[in-house]
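G., the chain you wanted modeled:
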Amino acid sequence: MNLVDLFKLQPTINPGMSLTGYGYTAPLPPGFNAIPIDAFGSYCVIPPGSNPPPMSVAVILLSPVPPQAFPMVLQTYYNFENPMVALPNAYGLGLANILQVAPLRQSNMNGALAYIREFDAVSMNGQPMRMTAILLQGQNSSVQAVIGINVYQWTQFAASALQFVAGIQLAGTSQVPGEVRAFMQHQEASDVSLQIVGKDKSVTDVMTLPAEVEGKSVVFKFEGPVYFGDNIDCSNAEVSGNIQIGKNNTQSSRRSR
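Predicted structure as tokens:
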């Protein structure tokens, strides 16, 4: 059963409650809605202003990963360029296709080790989506969060979606939720890197999005702080992760399918 069918059958979770699953908790902020996917603590989370699949302009799929399943899930992150791996995952997320995939990278996030895969996709209703899959590995548990945002409307949904992800806490960790910020190398840069800055001053690049949409600058609409590379004192944060695994040297580069 796909996500579209699940939304027709399941009740939503009241905002203000915490989502709980095997080895994790995640506070559900006001305005968010969530629908349980299974009995183990998987949820489809809808940020305020978005709609359930297949009409979602922003969506987060949250799933605990049992210890015995972690090696297999991690292997899919390493093999995501393979269409035999990517396409079944796309259909499971309610997507029509995956177009381009960025190199795998690692970082420290939410007090855990994060494996991150960023990719472009097309939704079932034909809309361009920017997706980021995050596999968080803690000492006692693991969880996967897949974020999807419509490229044309990212300024409206990115801050709230990533703030929810920043609040996910794995069992055995005590990390305080970090803040979400947008980072640009300079004011004329074509890409914006959305980051989660932890209280331990770690910085995780989560999603790269265009600074211009349909020929117009949209960064000024972002609901959060925007920092530039020439401002070295912007947050007193120190990069402590973002280790890329692969041949490409920049996060924004993607491999066409």
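The first strand starts at residue 18 and ends at 21.

Shout if anything looks off.
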